[in-house]
Write a structure and sequence with these properties.
The chain is mostly beta strands. The protein contains no helices and 28 strands. Strands 1-2-3-4 form a four-stranded antiparallel β-sheet, with no helix packed on it. A four-stranded antiparallel β-sheet has the order 5-6-7-8, with no helix packed on it. The chain is elongated and about 95 Å long. The C terminus is likely disordered.
Length: 364
């Protein structure tokens, strides 16, 4: 298929049931070079074809078998690897399928091989720039970018990564682009400099769009009020209360950009506490159960994830679990009590927070 870079409907070019794999454009952009096993007597080998972008029958090239390939700038020569690559499965492979690069002349059918060191190497991703062939190779350890000058016959190493390989090199608009360590880089043959790219990929992000949502599958933690007249639920990251029989539903929070979780009623039924990451880090929130006053935020000790808040019977403390290291308490500070519940997969710690030190008036 071909498709405009501006978008639109793709145009299909090949119809054979065998896999057709794109390798390059012809230098004038009129046809696509691709790999196919459509005429191979065995699935061990594939061959090169071109197909016009205007639509027509593919043309087979007089190369017995190939795997990766690219045209020279004038279209008179093809740099290609003859066999599929075993080093993708076996690092530092040096067996019979060691990858080589051959330079094929379309006029006289002469083939020249890019020289390899003693002991062989895997050379792949051949690219042309003028009279220079660029490729990736593991001849000096990890895969890096190299160049081969036909005039001198010399091979030069251009990048020197030793942590992760240079992968999937290709060329266009005067530069080479490749992947290394999970990043994209461009290499400028004129200056010999490589530059890491910052890539932004816009997406539809359907799940982040505002929308109505309903269903019991979104209910998480809940707690029943001391009188039993209402219950508080964690619903899709918000805190809501509902009556047992009569009354209105109350949204204590409406925070699409935050995760409000683990709500619990106070012993006197006047307040609700929960955890929220609205600030960027989890805090303990306390608000009147009718939602009439903005919630008060408390920075909590510990680190990681917090859960299972519980009020003390007198309403002066709230205990909770968190996953993280335990710090020794300062004099007069909160009491940290390490606990390791047997029914939990990881050690948790219990923490008691004095909750009545700076509550807003009327909340107790």
């Amino acid at each position: 298929f071909v498709v405009s870079v501006a978008g639109g409907a793709p145009q299909r070019l090949t119809w054979h049931p065998s896999a057709d794999v794109v390798r390059d454009w012809t230098p004038d952009g009129s046809a696509v070079l691709f790999l196919s096993q459509r005429e191979s007597f065995t699935n061990r080998y594939a061959q090169l074809f071109t197909v016009p972008v205007s639509g027509d029958q593919p043309t087979k090239l007089p190369v017995p078998n190939a795997f990766k390939a690219s045209f020279s700038g004038n279209g008179e020569r093809i740099a290609y690897t003859p066999l599929s690559e075993a080093h993708n499965q076996w690092k530092n492979y040096r067996g019979g399928r060691t990858s080589r690069i051959w330079l094929y002349d379309r006029d006289d059918h002469e083939v020249v091989e890019v020289p390899q060191p003693e002991g062989r190497s895997n050379d792949t991703d051949p690219l042309w720039f003028g009279g220079t062939v660029y490729f990736t190779s593991d001849r000096n350890g990890e895969f890096n970018l190299f160049s081969y000058d036909e005039g001198s016959g010399g091979v030069t190493q251009l990048t020197r990564y030793d942590d992760f390989p240079v992968l999937n090199a290709s060329a266009g608009d005067g530069v080479i682009i490749y992947e290394q360590g999970g990043y994209l880089y461009t290499f400028d043959p004129a200056s010999g400099q490589d530059t890491r790219l910052s890539v932004a990929a816009p997406a539809d992000l359907m799940e982040t769009r505002p929308r109505w949502a309903s269903g019991r599958q979104f209910l998480r933690n809940y707690h029943i009020s001391p009188t039993g007249a209402r219950a508080v639920f964690e619903f899709r990251g918000d805190i809501v209360t509902v009556p047992e029989k009569k009354g209105d539903h109350r949204a204590i929070t409406s925070s699409s950009a935050a995760h409000d979780r683990s709500p619990v009623w106070s012993p006197d039924g006047n307040q609700i506490a929960w955890f929220s990451d609205a600030s960027g880090e989890y805090q303990l929130m306390v608000a009147p159960q009718d939602g009439s006053v903005e919630p008060r935020a408390y920075d909590v000790e510990g680190a990681g994830f917090y859960e299972d808040p519980k009020w003390s019977p007198d309403g002066n403390y709230i205990s909770y679990f968190f996953r993280g290291p335990v710090r020794a308490p300062e004099a007069g500070g909160p009491c940290l009590v390490p606990r390791f519940p047997l029914d939990r997969p990881y050690p948790h710690h219990a923490h008691l927070l004095r909750a009545d030190l700076d509550l807003q008036p009327g909340l107790r």
